[in-house]
Amino acid sequence: MDLLDFPPEIFRHVINCLVSDVGVLCAWKLRSVCRKTLIPVVAQMLRADNFIGTFDQEISANILAVQPGESFRSYRAWCLLNRKENMMYYLAYHVKSPRDVLPELPAKIQKMVEYVTKELTAIDSLNDRNILLEVCAGVAQTCPLLATFLWRNSSTSPGSEQRYRERRQALSKDITYHDQLIAAISVGAHDAVAKLLPHAPTSLSLGIFEEPILAAVRQQDQKMIAVMMTVLDQHKLKRFKKNQVIGFGSPYSMLGSMQPAIADDNVNMVKLLLGYIRRYLTLPDKTYYRQWIDRAIHSRSNNVLRTLLQAAPDTKPFQINTTIFERGVKTGDSAIVTTLINYGSIQLDSSSAQMSALAASIRAGGVAVIRAVVEAGADIDLVITTHRLKHCDAITPLEYAIYLNNFDAVCYLIKCGTSVPATYTWHLSKKMQVIIRNAQASQEKTTKQKQ
Hints:
This protein has about 450 residues and is mostly helical. The protein has 26 helices and no strands.
């Protein structure tokens, strides 16, 4: 008899024993045994208790619906659950059956579901829509402290206990304006959001959720963002609108929403948000703009990085300082470095080892990065006079590479035709001595041939 031929209760008992025996992480990997359908079909299982899916569906459902909180105590297991696409299923299951979670959270989600269901029923058909799952997705995307809400806080410090009680108290209250807004955005209820926003306070209470636009950004709902900004544009005062766009806790705040759009390499969303933000801000002068640049570099999102740099006015391009440039160099991605050079304002040649782009690429990058800097026009024979190296007053990029024992950089710079000095004031390794001797011999041969 095949495993799927067992009655539902026996099949699920077998899966539960399997998961409990091998652990959450190992069981999660076992889902690939059966690949007939994908995990989104689990949504059906939230509606039908007798539904038997494939092997991987049952494992996913068991891990997200049955396993106790103790199963996720390890860091790796918690990371698995903390993924937004997994967390929304976990929340949806535990709203239907609130076990191993604080009861206030499922109750709060249920109130949000009831609110948007009532709003949507008046204007649309809800056939084939899982409103519970949609609201849980919005909660997972905009609630940064789900771990505290799911299980009893394990910390015993007085401050932690106080925060824990405050968060539970916030959950136990009736559905708030902020809750309604998050729920409506989560299900794409554009009319409900347009009706809510004119009565919005200038600052929301962020006890549980982050700014509402984050939910629209996570779901890539550009129409929802347009609806929200249309309501904001109805206000007459430009200062008020600017403060709402950049203010912490504002219903229209976009600054926090830019980070996830950058991390997801969502160029279209970044362009959309920048289009609204640039109505009120001169971007290069702001700290958060530099943070976005850093985030794009860290995420290796080259297209997003180019978009951000192009958002600065042509008359005032973003200044690429040494710290930002070295972050780009350390990625080892020559495309990132080229984008920083081409679309930002940077001083390629400097007599300071800390400010020189070529010195930074030799210090922290590979040959591909060094090539990008050289091809951008950096002087390979520039004399660096400001540095922290002992036993020398002035140093060339080649000597700097030799001093740092960067063999690949030395070979590349020699290949580019840089001058090879005859003597050095510091010790060279045997391998470096061979490279230098060969380079000197090659240059002497070339000189003789020219004569």
